[in-house]
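thought: user wants a sequence for this fold. calling inverse folding tool.
action: design(structure=
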C-alpha cells in the first residue's frame, strides 16, 4: 500500500486516479510515500523520512522547498499548463475590468437608491464617471511565454490587440505555439517601453522578484495598466502605489489581497482566483496524481 498525504483539498477526480486497493490517501497519514499539495506552505514542514515524491497541483512550486527536495532526491511534480485556460480567462476579465472600471462601477450601482428620477440622474453621472476605453489597437505586453503566457498572448491577438512577448527562455517549440502576430521584444525593458498593458506569467524567483520597480516604471508609457496574475512580489507594491497616485499607472489588477493598494479605485485585487475553476482543479489534480503514481509504481519521472 502506498500512503499519500494531502495538504490541501485535492480534486476528487485526481484522487480517483489512486485506486483504493493500492493507495491510502488522507489529510493525516503518517509516514507518507508522497505528498499532494496545492497552496500549503511546505517550507516550514518537517520532511517525513518516508517521503519519496511531492505533487504540486498547480504550476508554481514556490511553496515547496525544491532545492531541499532535490538534495534529498525527492522529485517534485507539478502541472504546467493544466490551469492555463483558467488563468487566461481571468486575465481577459482583468483587462476588461481595468479599462471599463467594472469593480468601482458595480459598487456604485449597488449603492444607488432613491426615486426613479434620482436614480436616473445617478446613472447618467455613473456613465460619465466610469467611461472607459477599448482594447483593439492597444498593445499588450506578455512577460513569460510558458503555457499560460502563450495562450494569454494569443487571447490578446483575438481581442484585436497588438501583442508583444518576452521570455528569455523561449524555446523553438514554444515559439510556434504563438500566433504569428505576436511580436518578440528584445528585452523586458524594450517591451515595457512599448506597451499599454503588461501582464506577467513568470514564476517568483530571484530574477523575477520586483521585476516591476520604481526604475522600470519610469520606462513605461504614461497610463499603463499592469496585471499580475502570477505571484506576489513580482511587482513592487509601494512603487506601483506611488505611480498610481501620480497617474503614471492607470490601473493595477492583481490576483492577491493587497494591503498597500486595496483602497484605490483603479486597483482590483482578487483572492488568487486564477486557477480556481472546477476544470483547472481537476486537470491539475489528475496530472500530478498520474505523475506521482507513475513514479511510485514504475520509477518514471515525467516532469519535475
Ligand atoms: C499555480 O501555481 O498554478 C496556482 O497558484 C495554483 C493555485 O491557485 O493553487
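)
observation: tool returned 304 residues.
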Amino acid at each position: 500500500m502506498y500512503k499519500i498525504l494531502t495538504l490541501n483539498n485535492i480534486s476528487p477526480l485526481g484522487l480517483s486516479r489512486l485506486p483504493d486497493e493500492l493507495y491510502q490517501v488522507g489529510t493525516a497519514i503518517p509516514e507518507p510515500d508522497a505528498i499532494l499539495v496545492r497552496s500549503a506552505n511546505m517550507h516550514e514542514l518537517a520532511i517525513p523520512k518516508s517521503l519519496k515524491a511531492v505533487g504540486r497541483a498547480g504550476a508554481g512550486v514556490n511553496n515547496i522547498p525544491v532545492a531541499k527536495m532535490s538534495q534529498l532526491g525527492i522529485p517534485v511534480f507539478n502541472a504546467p499548463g493544466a490551469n492555463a485556460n483558467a488563468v487566461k480567462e481571468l486575465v481577459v476579465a482583468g483587462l476588461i475590468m481595468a479599462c471599463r472600471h467594472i469593480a468601482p462601477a458595480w459598487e456604485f450601482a449597488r449603492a444607488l437608491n432613491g426615486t426613479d428620477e434620482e436614480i436616473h440622474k445617478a446613472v447618467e453621472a455613473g456613465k460619465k464617471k466610469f467611461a472607459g476605453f477599448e482594447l483593439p489597437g492597444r498593445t499588450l505586453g506578455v512577460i513569460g511565454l510558458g503555457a499560460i503566457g502563450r495562450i494569454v498572448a494569443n487571447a490578446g491577438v483575438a481581442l484585436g490587440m497588438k501583442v508583444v512577448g518576452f521570455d528569455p527562455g523561449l524555446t523553438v517549440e514554444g515559439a510556434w505555439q504563438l500566433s504569428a502576430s505576436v511580436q518578440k521584444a528584445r528585452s523586458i525593458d524594450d517591451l515595457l517601453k512599448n506597451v499599454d498593458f503588461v501582464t506577467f506569467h513568470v514564476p517568483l524567483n530571484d530574477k523575477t522578484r520586483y521585476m516591476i520597480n520604481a526604475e522600470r516604471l519610469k520606462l513605461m508609457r504614461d497610463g499603463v495598466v499592469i496585471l499580475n496574475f502570477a505571484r506576489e512580489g513580482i511587482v513592487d507594491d509601494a512603487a506601483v502605489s506611488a505611480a498610481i497616485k501620480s497617474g503614471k499607472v492607470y490601473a493595477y489588477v492583481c490576483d492577491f489581497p493587497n494591503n498597500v493598494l486595496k483602497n484605490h479605485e483603479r486597483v482590483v485585487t482578487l483572492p488568487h482566483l486564477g486557477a480556481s475553476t472546477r476544470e483547472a482543479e481537476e486537470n491539475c489534480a489528475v496530472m500530478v496524481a498520474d505523475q506521482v503514481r507513475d513514479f511510485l509504481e514504475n520509477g518514471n519521472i515525467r516532469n519535475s
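thought: summarizing for user.
answer: Here is the designed sequence. Residues 278-298 form the longest helix (21 residues).
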